[in-house]
C-alpha cells in the first residue's frame, strides 16, 4: 500500500474526477486506483505487443495481435 | 390525461426516468440531459450501438409529457417481453452481460462518450442476447477523467463472476442482498487463495478493495497531487484488461445434480417420445403466446414450444441446468427461449427501496400457459406443499396448465420418500384430480407410454 501511495504521489492526476452528469458516488479509491491500473495494464499491453512482434519475426503468428477484434459479447459455448 | 405509472427502479439518475402508460414502457429524457442525449444521437453512437444490436432501439414519440418544460424528449424503446434480474441469471448470462457492458464502453469511447454507470440492471436479454437498455447511461468523455462506473462494474459483474467461478456458483445469490453489487471487501474475503494467481482479479478486486479502504472518505484530489492525467488510451486499456479478465473466468456447469438429469433413467426412450408428443399436442391446443416451463431443467420440453416461435421462459432452480440451457440456446441461436434461475418454492420477491425497485416474479409473469412436468412431487413431497396450494398458485400465474402427475409408485417419488415417513395420504392421482378440479377445468389427459405417469391439459375456471 505504501508503494501504491508513493506511486500516486509522484505521478497523479488532476482532471480525474470531473464529470458532467455523475450521479453515482464513484468512490475515491476506485478513481485513484485507476492511475495505477493504467500504468500496469499499459505496460502489459506494450509487453504483449512486443512479444507478438518478436514472435512474428520468427514467423510465429499469435492468435490475436494488437487489438482484440474480439467483438462482441460472445464467449465460448 | 393517460395514467402514467413511474417504474419503481427509475429514480437514481436525474437525467430521466422510465414510466409506463397503457401497458407501454417509455423513457423520459429530462432537459438537463439534453446535450448528452443530442451527442449520443449526433455523434452516430446511437446508430452504431443500435445497429450492432448492443443498445435497445427506440423511437422519439409525441407525448403529453412534452408539455412539461423539464422534459426534453419521450422515447418509446423496443418493448421487452420480460424483465429479469442478475440474481436470476446463470454464470454465462451474467458474463455475457458484463462483456456487453464493456463493448458498449469501448464503442462509446471511440465517439468521445463514456458510460456513467455500469449496473447489471442496465442489461436485459432479448431474443437470446444481452442488450443494453439504458439509453441515458452515456455522457461526454472528458480528457483526463477516470471511469466513474469502474467501482460499480466490479461490484455488479466482476465480483459475483469471480466468486461463482472460484468459490461457488450459488454465491450469485448475494446479488439479492446487495442490490448495488457485491462489496469488494466481501468478495475478496470469500475468494480462495488460488485466485491470487489470476492477475486480473488481483488488480481489479484485491488492489481495488485495498484502495477503497485506504482512501475511504478522502477527496480524490487531496490524495493525488499534480501531474499526469489519464488519457483515453488508459481507459481503453483498463476496459480491455477487464474484458479479458471477465472472459477468462470459467465455470464447469456439469458438476450440479440436475444438469445431467436426462442422461439418467427417468424415462425409457418410448416413454420420452410419447411425453414429447403429448406435450406438443397440448401446446397446440392451448396455443399460448408466452409459455413458462416450471422446473424446466435444461429446457428439453421448453424447446417444443420455443421451436414454434412461442416466447418460452424456462425456469429452474439448478444453476447447472440453467447454464446448460442458456449455452444450448446460444449454440442453436434460439431467440424464443429465456432460461432463468428461479427457485419456485421461494420465487423472487419485490425488493429494494419501498419494495418496489425490483419486482416480484408474479408481477413480471405474463404467461398464458404453464408447463409443469415432473415437478409436482418435488413441490408436494420435498416441500410438503398441499396439492390445493399448488393448484391455486399455478392458476394465479396463467390460464392454461400442462401438468404431469407422478404417482407414488414412480422411482423418483420412491427416492424422495426413501428416508422419510410417508405423511402424504392425499398424494394420489385421484387426490390430485380433486385438488386441481377446484380451480381448473380438465380439458384432456393422456398416459405416458411405458410409465405410470399421466399428463393433463387444464384450463383455469
How is this structure best described in words?
- The complex is a heterodimer of chains A (77) and B (461).
- By secondary structure, chain A is mainly alpha-helical.
- Chain A has a domain of 41 residues.
- Chain A contains 2 helices and no strands.
- The longest helix of chain A is centred in the middle third of the chain and has 30 residues.
- The radius of gyration of chain A is 18 Å and the shape is rod-shaped.
- Chain A starts with a helix and ends in a 20-residue tail after the last helix.
- The C terminus of chain A is likely disordered.
- Chain B has 3 domains: 73 residues; 167 residues; 200 residues, Vaccinia Virus protein VP39 (Rossmann fold, 3-Layer(aba) Sandwich).
- Helix content of chain B is 38%, strand content 17%.
- In chain B, helix 3 packs antiparallel against helix 9 and helix 4 packs parallel to helix 6.
- The radius of gyration of chain B is 25 Å and the shape is globular.
- The chains are: A mainly alpha (77), B alpha/beta (461).
- Chains A and B meet through helix 1 and helix 2 of A and helix 3, helix 4, helix 7, helix 8 and helix 9 of B.
Radius of gyration of chain B: 25 Å
Rg from Cα of chain A: 18 Å
What structural category do the secondary elements of chain A indicate? mainly alpha
Helix percent band of chain B = 25-40%
How many domain modules of chain B? 3
- How many DSSP H or I helices of chain A? 2
Briefly summarize what is shown.
The complex is a heterodimer of chains A (77) and B (461). Helices cover 51% and strands 0% of the residues of chain A.
List the helices and strands and how they pair.
The complex is a heterodimer of chains A (77) and B (461).
Chain A lengths: L1 H9 L17 H30 L20
Chain B lengths: L4 E2 L9 E6 L2 E7 L3 H9 L2 H7 L6 E3 L10 E7 L13 H20 L2 E3 L7 E4 L2 E4 L5 E3 L9 H17 L7 H4 L6 H7 L8 H16 L5 H4 L8 H17 L20 H18 L3 E5 L7 H5 L4 E6 L2 H14 L4 E5 L19 H4 L4 E4 L3 H7 L4 H11 L2 E6 L5 H7 L11 H9 L2 E8 L6 E7 L1
Parallel strand pairs in B: 10-11, 10-13, 11-12, 13-14
Antiparallel strand pairs in B: 1-2, 2-3, 3-5, 4-5, 6-9, 7-8, 14-16, 15-16
Helix pairs in contact in B: 3-4, 3-9, 4-6, 4-7, 6-7, 7-9, 15-17
Amino acid at each position: 500500500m505504501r508503494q501504491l501511495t508513493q506511486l500516486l504521489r509522484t505521478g497523479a492526476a488532476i482532471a480525474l474526477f470531473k464529470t458532467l452528469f455523475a450521479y453515482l458516488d464513484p468512490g475515491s479509491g476506485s478513481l485513484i486506483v485507476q492511475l495505477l491500473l493504467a500504468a500496469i495494464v499499459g505496460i502489459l499491453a506494450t509487453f504483449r505487443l512486443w512479444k507478438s512482434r518478436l514472435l512474428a519475426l520468427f514467423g510465429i503468428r499469435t492468435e490475436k495481435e494488437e487489438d482484440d477484434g474480439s467483438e462482441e459479447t460472445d464467449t465460448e459455448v | 390525461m393517460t395514467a402514467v405509472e413511474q417504474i419503481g427502479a427509475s429514480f437514481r439518475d436525474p437525467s430521466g426516468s422510465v414510466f409506463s402508460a397503457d401497458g407501454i414502457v417509455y423513457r423520459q429524457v429530462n432537459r438537463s440531459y439534453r446535450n448528452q442525449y443530442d451527442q449520443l444521437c449526433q455523434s452516430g453512437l446511437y446508430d452504431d450501438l443500435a445497429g450492432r444490436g448492443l443498445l435497445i432501439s427506440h423511437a422519439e414519440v409525441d407525448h403529453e409529457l412534452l408539455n412539461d418544460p423539464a422534459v426534453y424528449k419521450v422515447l418509446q424503446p423496443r418493448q421487452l417481453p420480460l424483465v429479469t434480474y442478475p440474481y436470476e441469471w446463470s454464470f454465462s448470462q451474467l458474463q455475457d452481460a458484463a462483456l456487453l457492458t464493456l463493448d458498449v464502453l469501448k464503442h462509446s469511447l471511440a465517439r468521445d462518450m463514456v458510460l456513467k454507470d455500469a449496473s447489471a440492471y442496465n442489461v436485459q436479454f432479448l431474443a437470446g442476447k444481452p442488450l443494453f437498455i439504458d439509453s441515458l447511461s452515456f455522457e461526454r468523455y472528458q480528457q483526463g477523467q477516470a471511469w466513474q462506473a469502474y467501482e460499480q462494474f466490479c461490484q455488479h459483474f466482476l465480483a459475483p463472476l469471480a466468486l461463482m467461478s472460484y468459490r461457488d456458483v450459488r454465491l450469485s445469490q448475494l446479488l439479492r442482498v446487495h442490490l448495488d453489487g457485491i462489496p469488494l471487501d466481501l468478495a475478496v474475503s470469500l475468494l480462495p487463495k488460488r485466485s491470487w494467481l489470476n492477475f486480473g482479479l488481483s488488480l481489479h478486486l484485491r488492489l481495488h478493495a485495498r484502495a477503497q479502504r485506504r482512501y475511504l472518505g478522502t477527496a480524490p484530489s487531496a490524495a493525488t497531487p499534480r501531474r499526469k492525467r489519464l488519457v483515453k488510451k488508459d481507459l481503453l486499456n483498463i476496459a480491455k484488461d477487464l474484458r479479458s479478465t471477465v472472459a477468462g473466468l470459467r465455470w464447469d456447469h456439469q458438476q450440479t445434480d440436475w444438469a445431467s438429469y436426462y442422461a439418467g433413467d427417468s424415462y425409457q426412450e418410448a416413454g420420452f417420445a410419447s411425453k414429447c408428443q403429448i406435450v406438443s399436442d397440448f401446446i397446440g391446443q392451448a396455443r399460448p403466446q408466452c409459455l413458462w416451463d416450471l422446473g424446466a431443467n435444461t429446457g428439453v420440453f421448453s424447446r417444443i414450444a420455443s421451436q414454434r416461435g412461442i416466447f418460452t421462459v424456462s425456469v429452474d432452480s439448478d444453476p447447472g441446468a440453467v447454464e446448460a440451457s442458456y449455452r444450448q440456446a446460444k449454440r442453436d441461436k434460439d431467440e424464443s427461449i429465456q432460461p432463468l434461475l428461479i427457485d419456485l418454492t421461494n420465487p423472487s420477491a419485490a425488493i429494494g427501496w419501498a419494495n418496489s425497485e425490483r419486482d416480484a416474479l408474479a408481477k413480471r409473469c405474463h404467461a398464458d400457459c404453464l408447463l409443469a412436468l415432473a415437478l409436482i412431487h418435488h413441490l408436494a413431497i420435498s416441500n410438503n406443499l398441499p396439492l390445493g396450494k399448488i393448484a391455486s398458485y399455478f392458476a394465479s400465474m396463467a390460464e392454461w396448465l400442462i401438468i404431469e402427475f407422478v404417482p407414488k409408485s414412480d422411482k423418483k417419488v420412491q427416492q424422495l420418500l426413501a428416508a422419510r415417513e410417508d405423511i402424504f395420504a392425499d398424494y394420489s392421482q385421484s387426490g390430485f384430480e380433486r385438488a386441481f378440479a377446484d380451480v381448473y377445468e380438465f380439458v384432456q389427459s393422456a398416459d405416458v407410454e411405458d410409465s405410470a405417469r399421466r399428463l393433463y391439459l387444464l384450463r383455469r375456471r
